[in-house]
Design a protein that fits this description.
The complex is a heterodimer. Chain A has helices at about 5-25, 35-45, 60-80, 95-110, 115-130, 130-140, 145-175, 180-200, and strands at about 145, 210. Chain A is mainly alpha-helical. Chain B is low in regular secondary structure. Helix content of chain B is about 0%, strand content about 0%. Chain B contains no helices and no strands. The model of chain B has no long low-confidence stretch (mean pLDDT about 75). Classes of the chains: A mainly alpha, B little secondary structure. The interface between A and B is medium-sized, with 24 and 10 residues.
Chain lengths: ~210, ~10
Amino acid sequence: MNIFRLTGDLSHLAAIIILLLKIWKTRSCAGISGKSQILFALVFTTRYLDLLTSFISLYNTSMKFIYIGCAYATVYMIYAKFKATYDGNHDTFRVEFLVVPIGGLAFLVNHDFSPLEILWTFSIYLESVAILPQLFMISKTGEAETITTHYLFFLGLYRALYLMNWIWRFYFEGFFDMIAIVAGVVQTILYCDFFYLYVTKVLKGKKLSLPA
Amino acid sequence: SAPPLRHDEL
């Protein structure tokens, strides 16, 4: 464990909690892409199946349960509890165009052709594009609530911190995982446009609205 | 080095 990975995990946890609290407190999921949240639940489910097979640490296991629990709670609140506030008309990204090719890619490019490893690879690839429905929805509605931009900021920051974690681990441990690194770079690049708007607008107290 | 198949990251 290193400082980049720890702050990355905490940033990820902050994002997940911010979103959960936003929906719970405002009793509304307006502006939130349910499709992205379903993809994140799928990412955690396929990545954390090793909860059943191997124990790494109390931290690792507890964080996995928290992530999975929050992800499903968020999906439940969007599609069941606060379904009336779900903006389905703007959440129209064709996720099948993501899931199917990524499923194929996971079969072709992986570290080991075993079920758990292929599911882990699928999860890594899927996570890198899982935010697209959310970014697409914001581009369609033309704006985002400020709390939603904070959610996206911490979510994007977490993988950027993981990139630093992988540099650290390569330098100090000689560890590197090309699949995770390439997917992590793609994932972080997808946030660059948002990061620019977040820093130039939201941090200056303005509302995030598109086109700029 | 080949990555460990036991993934220790979240």
